[in-house]
Write a structure and sequence with these properties.
The chain is α/β, with parallel strands linked by helices. It is built from 15 helices and 22 strands. The chain has three domains: 3-147 and 270-338, FAD/NAD(P)-binding domain; 161-267, FAD/NAD(P)-binding domain (3-Layer(bba) Sandwich), CATH 3.50.50.60; 352-468, Enolase-like, domain 1 (2-Layer Sandwich), CATH 3.30.390.30. The relative contact order is 0.12.
């Protein structure tokens, strides 16, 4: 029987990072992957494919967003989705190669097959050829990811009703689309199809998209989506979805009916926790297939850890990478400074994109932090106007007493990139003066931070005057 220090079941971003972290530290590590290639949903079914489609949509709409007299470059939406994602295969292949090279460099072994936990120190591997191998291990990381939730009352056998995995396999771009679920995935796809000029309806049972966002940022995003032509149906619950000869119909609890060529069900995801033997070590996933873990990503079984989508929110590739790293560091008592950063950023690739790091103003108040907000609008930024984004917004959250930066939210062009500067400021304890004194290139979107800092300074002055009065 082969013996390992760590066995990772699943080679998505959490599994890959944990395996490489342990391997580079000299621990014998094995990855068990059921799919043909590594990368999980990040590479194979979700993140990369949807982002390639987004970038293609932005290229196709560039002349509409930044008009050039006499130039009309409307896309041909009769093409297949595969044609719009022509670069997807190349990017995926390059990511597969990168992952395999990284695992090789860290001397991580790989087995193709399905892993199942037998007890707290043994894992069974069922290979594609039908053979079974059992290995011994000090630790196990469950990083099996998630899949789209499929309620029984939705007929996914009908060709016009698909989930996020099935959407990208359509033969043709849809003539129209209704998306059920205004979370990250549903909102991103709604923006992509609307950007291509395809009639799009987004149905969200709650009274607002992605309620975890800063309220002002969320409202701005919803306004931008509405302006792009998306029919937002917020606070509407689907009661029935029926396939027809020409598409599908969504019936809502307010009595209305939405007809579309394609209906995308994007209301929730299910953790891939079934069939991997968690019951053998006393780990019970919840009804959504999610595994409970502590701050070190350890389950109730001391030798079994979990990370990535299978542990739930925020279920982003970036956070999954960090969770895998932290889990491996905790298993083997590696450097303390390799703990999960308190300032893990969030990037949502809607159009416009949203970036967030740290605390919102409301979250700061709940934590007992007396804070003010500094705002910067893209309209007052030369680079923002050049990019055709005159409605973007950047917000800095600043603690009043210390003037420390405690949070940042952005909606607009390059929001997912801009937020990293705020991440650096928060993680290194920078104060408001750092942005006030910084010299930024002109014209650049990064100078939004100086504008926001000036606005926050004025907010601090007003607060001081009110206190004095």
């Amino acid at each position: 029987m082969s013996r390992y220090d760590l066995v990772c079941i699943g080679c998505g971003p959490a599994g890959e990072t944990a395996a490489v972290t342990a391997g580079l530290a000299g621990y014998r590590t094995l990855v068990v992957e059921a799919a043909g290639r590594p990368g999980g949903a990040m590479v194979n079914t979700g993140t990369i494919a949807s982002k390639v489609l987004r970038e293609t949509a932005l290229v196709c709409s560039a002349f509409r967003r930044r008009p050039v007299p006499g130039v009309d470059a409307r896309p041909d939406t009769n093409l297949s989705i595969a044609a719009f994602m022509a670069r997807t295969t190349l990017v995926q292949m390059e990511e597969h190669d990168r992952i395999e090279e990284t695992l090789d460099r860290a001397r991580v072994e790989v087995r193709h097959g399905r892993g199942r936990i037998l007890d707290d120190h043994h894992v069974e591997i069922a290979r594609p050829d039908g053979t079974i191998e059992v290995v011994e291990t000090s630790f196990v990381l469950v990083s099996t990811g998630s899949r789209p939730a499929r309620p029984d009352w939705v007929d996914f056998d009908h060709p016009a009703i698909v989930d996020a995995d099935g959407l990208l396999a359509l033969d043709r771009m849809p003539r129209s689309i209704a998306i059920v679920g205004g979370g990250v995935i549903g909102s991103e796809y709604a923006c992509i199809f609307a950007e291509l000029g395809i009639p799009t309806t987004l149905i969200e049972p709650r009274h607002g998209l992605m309620r975890f966002l800063d309220p002002e940022i969320r409202e701005q995003l919803e306004a931008e989506m509405d302006a792009s032509g998306i029919d937002l149906r917020l606070g509407c619950k689907p009661t029935a979805i029926t396939g027809t000869d020409t598409g599908a119909v969504v019936e809502l609890d307010d009595g209305s009916r939405i007809e579309a060529a394609i209906v995308l069900w994007s209301l929730g995801r299910q953790g891939n926790a079934d069939g991997i033997g968690l019951e053998n070590v006393g780990v019970e996933p919840n009804d959504r297939g999610l595994v409970a873990v502590d701050a070190d990503y350890r389950t109730v079984c001391p030798t079994v850890f979990a990370g990535g989508d299978v542990v739930g929110f925020p279920a982003l590739a970036s956070t999954s990478i960090e969770q895998g790293r932290v889990a491996a560091c905790r298993m083997f008592d590696l450097d303390d400074d390799r703990a999960l950063a308190d300032t893990v950023p969030m990037g949502i690739y809607t159009i416009p994109a949203v970036g967030h790091v740290g605390r919102t103003l409301d979250e700061a108040g709940e934590a007992g932090i007396d804070a003010v907000v500094g705002r910067a609008t893209y309209r007052r930024n030369a680079r923002g106007r050049m990019l055709g984004d005159d409605r973007g917004l950047l917000k800095l959250v600043v603690e009043r007493g210390t003037e420390r930066i405690v949070g940042c939210s952005v909606v607009g062009e390059d929001a997912t990139e801009l937020v990293h500067l705020a991440q650096f400021a928060i993680s290194t304890g920078q104060k408001l003066g750092w942005f006030e004194q910084a010299c930024f290139n002109y014209p650049s979107l990064t100078s939004l931070f100086r504008q926001a800092a000036d606005d926050a300074r004025e907010a601090l002055r007003l607060a001081a005057r009110r206190t004095a009065a």
